[in-house]
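This week, work through this protein record:
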Amino acid sequence: MGDSNATVVTEFILLGISDDRRTQMVLFVAFLLFYLATLLGNSLLIVLILLSPLLHTPMYFFLCNLSFLDMFYTTSSVPQLLANCLLRRLTISYTRCVTEMYVSLFLGIAECFLLAVMAYDRFAAVCNPLHYTVIMSRKVCIQLAASSWGSALVTTLIPRLIQPTQLCGHNIINHFICEVQAFFKLACSDTHVTDTVLMINSLIVLAAPFSFILVTYGRIGQAVMRIHSAKGRGKAFSTCGSHLVVVSIFYGSAISMYMRPQGKTTSGRDKIVALFYGAVTPMLNPLIYSFRNKDVKGAFWRLLGKKMSE
């Protein structure tokens, strides 16, 4: 083997969440149900938006993008979690680990930017209702969605460029997936510069969009308070309430994970937070938007009635 610094890592061992077999089986069943519910809920929402002409608006265009993102985001991590629950020690090749890590990172960052775009859409709808269709034209919507995906791709390249090349034979990842922070903790060289760059990247990806959302909803709140009718205020709040709930859940968990100094090891708390925003949040999003949205529920019952009458 020679010097340990020359050891080439070709595969990793994922430690998972728990060593207790009963706990692993309970987690397997729970997150299998979460995963299936995520796929079913988001795919149903996409079908409703595509088939219902009443939902062909900017808000639902972005919601369709969000559902698409959630389906692939959870698919990038949950199958790995399920396999980890079934096996004592899951091994994964270096190439597959790195690929899954950056695909998941890209999708998560894209969701951060997309939620900010959706906040701007709500701002235009509430604060400039007479010019809304002009401000949020089809061309603008496509450009905003494309910019979310493009910005996510660029910011994903930053961790890739500073990825540690010297692991000194360290191949045990204390996580249930190949998560970027857990992977970078395997580096045997000084990680001060790497940690600083990752924190700056987190500011761009999390703090900047979240601050934009807060300012945007501050302006929306001011506009709503100027509406004299209670019915008008209720309608304005209802169009924004679902998005606010999703933003609070997603950004709250992500910021608690990435916007703080990192230790040398991954804690159990880090795994729980990763479970929440990687597996639970994508399942909740279609439920939140459906239960609080009369248009979506109406489209569902119309589609169901059409199918039954055929």
User: Anything to note?
Assistant: The longest strand covers residues 11-14. The chain has a mean pLDDT of 84. The CA atoms of residues 173 and 253 lie 21 Å apart. The two ends are 69 Å apart (CA to CA).
